[in-house]
Known about the structure:
The protein is an all-alpha fold. The chain has helices spanning 9-17, 21-43, 46-63, 73-92, 104-111, 119-133, 137-147, 153-160, 164-192. The protein is elongated.
Amino acid sequence: MPNLKSHTDEALITMLKNGAVSAFDELYNRYWEALLAKAFDRVKSREDAQEIVQELFIKIWKRSPYIELQYTFKTYIYAALRYEVYHFIGKHQFRKDDISLESSEYFELWAQDDEFHSIEMKELQSRVDLIVDSLPEKCKIIFKMSRNEGLSSKNIADQLNLSPRTVDTQIGKALRVLKNVLKELTFFLLSSGLLR
């Protein structure tokens, strides 16, 4: 196997697009530990973090012929990791009060680290905002009170003169809408070239 340590990421991507397994291996070795640490920081589980990063590299391998870098590969792969974390949380934790698409903690996923302030990520965050804003009025108000203000179902119910069960039902509706829209977000990422 040739020694590729001196090659740039972008040179390796060119090789990878031509089917060079050695280039894939080098990129994997360069980024695996850092990506694992970043994913672990988000999901707080080593096993889940490993699953996320493994899935990310599987997708990169499968889509390698179609990768078109608009920025550096480092920007590309970390942005792709953020999507994988987003998708993982959406897939595994759409339960009451488990996901917080509007909270500062959750939007750190999109806002931290300068290399992710790309057009694609800003566009994606904008689309998530639009999804939340398009919810039915009562559902949107309750969801934002829960996520933005961190209020419990009981507090929201007291403020809006509703039953806690009604509040929980509305939050559940909002989460189902967001879950369904994950498919649209996936299509957007693929069509934008962010995760091909």
